[in-house]
Amino acid sequence: MSRMIFVNLPVTDLDASMDFYKAIGFENNPQFTDDTAACMVLSEAINVMLLTHAKWRTFTDRPIPPATSSEVMLALSCESREAVDAMNEAAAKNGGTADINPVQELGFMYNRNLADPDGHVWEAMWMDPTAIPTGD
């Protein structure tokens, strides 16, 4: 079996968070979803578990950081620059915030950062590995 990642995120409004993640391309896995948590699937290997604060606290007693803090930035590859732009537009229209950091255009790589409704930071990025400068 290949390895998978389950990113666990505390959320204040489970339904709104599920709507947000659906809007940016995730699908709900009802097998692991109830009124305290939702499993949102991006690919066979990438899953996001949205956990109510009460559910989160069953796993840890560490404090939930405020939405204005930044602890981690999760990068998601996209098929094109246009797909990066579309993800940011969907974020802005569905309770998130687009372009929380400056857009990066490096020629071989393009990325834009967004935040979900709880302030969790995502980087939508596209890269052409054949165009990476070699330093010669």
Question: Please, could you describe this protein's structure?
Answer:
There is one protein chain. The protein has helices at 14-23, 53-56, 81-93, and strands at 5-11, 27-29, 37-41, 46-52, 73-77, 97-98, 104-105, 109-115, 121-127. It has 2 domains: 1-61, 2,3-Dihydroxybiphenyl 1,2-Dioxygenase, domain 1 (Roll), CATH 3.10.180.10; 70-136, Roll (2,3-Dihydroxybiphenyl 1,2-Dioxygenase, domain 1), CATH 3.10.180. Strands 5, 6, 7, 8 and 9 form a 5-stranded mixed sheet that branches. A 4-stranded mixed sheet has the order 1-4-3-2. It is built from 3 helices and 9 strands. It has 136 residues and is an alpha+beta fold.
CATH architect. name of the largest domain: Roll
> DSSP strand (E) fraction?
25-35%
How many strand segments?
A: 9
- How far apart the termini lie comes to 40 Å
Rg of Cα set = 16 Å
Average pLDDT score = 95
CATH superfamily of the largest domain: 2,3-Dihydroxybiphenyl 1,2-Dioxygenase, domain 1
Domain VOC: 3-127
Protein name: VOC domain-containing protein
InterPro entries: Glyas_Bleomycin-R_OHBP_Dase, Glyoxy/Ble-like_N, VOC_core
Quick synopsis:
The protein has 136 residues and is an alpha+beta fold.
Q: Keyphrases for this structure?
A:
2,3-Dihydroxybiphenyl 1,2-Dioxygenase, domain 1; 136 residues; 3 helices; 2 domains; 5-stranded mixed β-sheet; single chain; 4-stranded mixed β-sheet; alpha+beta
Describe the secondary-structure layout:
Layout: E1 5-11, H1 14-23, E2 27-29, E3 37-41, E4 46-52, H2 53-56, E5 73-77, H3 81-93, E6 97-98, E7 104-105, E8 109-115, E9 121-127
Parallel strand pairs: 1-4, 5-9
Antiparallel strand pairs: 2-3, 3-4, 6-8, 7-8, 8-9
